[in-house]
Design a protein that fits this description.
Blueprint (H helix, E strand, L loop, with lengths): L6 H10 L21 H16 L5 H14 L2 H30 L12
The structure holds a DNA duplex (15 and 15 nucleotides).
Length: about 120
Amino acid sequence: MPKETTKATRRKAADKAEKAPKAKAKKDPKAPKRPLSAYMFFSQDWRERIKAENPDAGFGEIGKLLGAKWKELDESEKKPYVEQAARDKQRAEAEKTEYDGKKGDSAGSGGDDDDE
DNA sequence: CGTATGATTGTTTCT
DNA sequence: AGAAACAATCATACG
């Protein structure tokens, strides 16, 4: 069995599942955005199917159906999505690498900035 | 070392 | 343009 980094960690997540804190406001000026989640890839492929079988379903309906099916999928079914997520992760990794690297540098350049 | 958190990602539909 | 259900994530920061 793989190590679950102390399952206790995840447990907490379930505890918090009670509330749905909306992401808002950023912290870092260039926040190296995080990799997409398997759900994102899954939705990209399913979104069309959901609507295909639920042309009448609206936002809430589809969203719920989407998640419901997602959980119905087998590990192997999510695998492809998760793999994509893992792939994107590498991308995000590089992002942070740069963010972390330039962070200390000052060189100056100046340039950069936040906003453009 | 282990933990908790926070931030983020993409879809859909609506006004 | 943004909002919110739906789900995963998972990298980071901190003592």
